[in-house]
Each structure stands twice: as C-alpha cells, then as structure tokens.
Design goal:
Blueprint lengths: L7 H8 L3 H8 L7 H13 L6 H8 L4 E6 L5 H14 L5 E6 L4 H13 L4 E4 L9 H8 L4 E4 L10 E4 L1 H14 L5 E5 L5 H16 L9 E3 L7 H12 L7 E4 L2 H13 L9 E5 L13 E4 L2 H17 L9 E4 L2 E3 L14
Parallel strand pairs: 1-2, 1-3, 3-4, 4-5, 5-11, 6-7, 6-8, 8-9, 9-10
Antiparallel strand pairs: 10-12
C-alpha cells in the first residue's frame, strides 16, 4: 500500500471548510476567527499533519535543510561533530541530511550533487581523502550556495572554515613521546595533500627539531584512504617494522588510523608500551578503559560542529552577500594514558 501524506485538502474535506480557509488558519491569519483556527489546529494535530516541505520550499525559496558530507559516520570524531551540528540546526528549525563519502572523491561528488538537487539551503563538508579536484564545490559556491568547511578544509574557496590547531596536537604528541625517551618515533598519516596531514606533519617535524633530531622520511607512512582500508594500514606498518631501524613509538595521525593501528599491533602481538609507545588522534570515549589505557590527542568535535553550523546559518540567513570570512581554529587536548609511558628496562648484572 502506497503511503500518502495528509494534505490541506484532507483537512478541509473532513471539517467541511475550504482549502484556503484551512491554509490561512494554519498560518494564523487574522482573517480567520479564533474558533475556526482552534478547530483546524486541533484536527491537524490529531491526524499528525505536517506541511509539505517541497511546497514550502517553493513558496519561501528555502528548504530549511542543510547537507552534511563526512567520510564516515561511524568515526567517533565525525559522529560527535554531527551531534554538535544537530544541536544547533534543529533548535533553529533546520533539518539535516547526512551523507558519507567513505574517503571516495566520486562518492563525495555524487553526495554533493544529490544534496544540491534537494535544494538544501547550505552545505557543511569535510572533504574526502581522495579529493583534489574541487570543481564540484567551487561551482556551487560560485552559484551562491553557502558552504562551510570543517576539519579538512580547502584553501582555494573563500568561505568560513572551522578546524583545530593540528600542528599543535601533533607537536604535543610527538614531543611527549620523545621526552619519554623514545628515539624512533614513526608517524602514520592520511593522504599527503589533505590540510590536516600537512599541518600535523609540520607539528611532527617541529617536535623532532625541538628535540635535536633530524626528520627521517622513512619513519612516515601515508594512507591514501585515511585508514578505512585496513590492508593499506597493514602495508604501511609492515613497511615501518621491516626497516633496519624499527620504530620504538608511533604517532597515529587520525581517528581511523589510530583504531586500525591498534588492530595491527594486537594481531602481531606487539605490546604497548613494552614493545612500542603509542599516541594517536582519537575521540573514542573509552580510551581510558582500554588495556593499556590509550594516550590520545582529542579534538573538540562537538564544538566544531556547533561552531560550523552557526557560521553556515549566518551565511544562509544573511540579508546581504557576505564577503568577509574567517577560519576558526580550536585547541586540541593531549590526554596521557599508559600506551605512551616508557618502561625502562633493568640493567643486566
């Protein structure tokens, strides 16, 4: 049986009123008596009437919906960002349409085209690990679609952007490992051309320099699919551990990379911190309950979502074209657990 939504015509027929009277009553028009308004509103509530969003969007030239593109909803960081987005959007009367790119440029392109075809009022996006061609976003931006980038931002499109101090997060993690006495700190990174990779790699290099060590490119491995492909992570770690100078610590450059690095270490019976120290970017809520407890760089994901949504709604609701944009940079936190605590081996007598 095909579902059919209740319409104004259905209400009018049931109450013996004209459709124009019902429409005005629902809009709280002064032309309709209080008694008729009460009758219409009570019946509409009783049958769970909801205005047709397509009809409203045609009338108001607004859909009161915003699109979201993230790499993976299951990712702890992005799920917390989405919670932040929804906390603002729904309070302001906007619905959200969430899509996943799964780190695929073509999936992202398809998602953006779909969202645009649904007449969204604005777009929040963290680009995929494969995205280098920005024409699909630049074209919509040029046509006036409000867009705000968060986390993985792009330089060539002038709009609001929300991210964290990635360089600081990577510096703090790497510096802590080096201060613990680790010497061969490897870095497992996302695709090289992503903004977060460039910034986190800069922080990693800065920590090396701060501790009197030269940068060794052999200690850095990049995963083009951002950790979603476990085999890619496995190959990167195999490469690191096959070197003559094996790493004695690892810095995981993203949430998914961190998760799959832990999976690899467990599969290969590599113990933390006995065999290797570890700190990763991660927003997992149970890091302290793992054994050993996990040292992480935590991002203010919920706040990122709230801030990005607020900026997007400012663009959507502005009466005049916005020509001044800013990049909001929030601070990450380094939370120390057991995985990065260097265990000093007793000297043999």
């Amino acid at each position: 049986m095909k579902f059919e939504a209740v319409t104004i015509k259905d209400i009018a027929k049931a109450l013996g009123l004209s459709t124009s009277t019902v429409s005005r009553a629902l809009r709280d028009s002064y032309e309709i008596s209080p008694e008729t308004k009460k009758q219409v509103l009570e019946y509409a509530q009783k049958i769970n009437y909801r205005p047709n969003p397509i009809a409203l969007s045609l009338k108001e030239k607004r859909s009161h919906s915003i699109g979201i593109v993230v790499s993976e909803i299951a990712n702890n960081f992005f799920s917390q960002v989405i919670n932040g987005i929804e906390s603002i959007a729904y309070d302001r009367g906007y619905n959200v349409v969430i899509t996943q790119s799964h780190e695929s440029y073509h999936r992202e392109l398809s998602n953006v085209q779909y969202l645009a075809s649904r007449s969204i009022d604005g777009l929040l996006i963290s680009v995929s690990a494969e995205t280098q061609d920005l024409q699909h976003l630049q074209g919509l931006h040029d046509k006036g679609l409000p867009i705000v980038f968060f986390d993985r931002v792009v330089e060539n499109i002038e709009t609001h952007k929300v991210t964290i101090d990635n360089a600081r997060g990577a510096f703090d993690a790497t510096h802590y490992l080096l201060q613990q006495g680790y010497q061969q700190v490897a870095a497992l990174m996302n695709a090289e051309y992503l903004s977060i990779t460039r910034e986190r790699l800069a922080g990693y290099k800065n920590a090396m320099n701060k501790n009197g060590l030269s940068f060794d490119p052999d200690l850095v491995q990049y995963c083009r699919h951002g950790g979603l492909d476990y085999e890619e992570v496995e190959q990167a770690l195999d490469q690191l551990f096959s070197q003559q100078k094996r790493p004695d610590a690892i810095f995981g450059g993203s949430d998914t990379l961190t998760t799959n690095c832990l999976r690899y270490l467990k599969a290969h019976n590599i113990r933390m911190p006995e065999d290797i120290g570890f700190i990763g970017f991660s927003n997992i809520d149970l890091s302290e309950l793992l054994s050993p407890s996990l040292s992480v760089v935590r991002q203010p994901a919920f706040e990122i979502g709230k801030l990005a949504t607020g900026l997007l709604l400012e663009l959507i609701e502005s009466k005049r074209p916005v020509k001044t944009f800013n990049t909001q940079v929030l601070s990450p936190s380094l939370l120390i657990g057991e995985s990065s605590q260097r265990i000093k081996k007793a000297k043999k007598l």
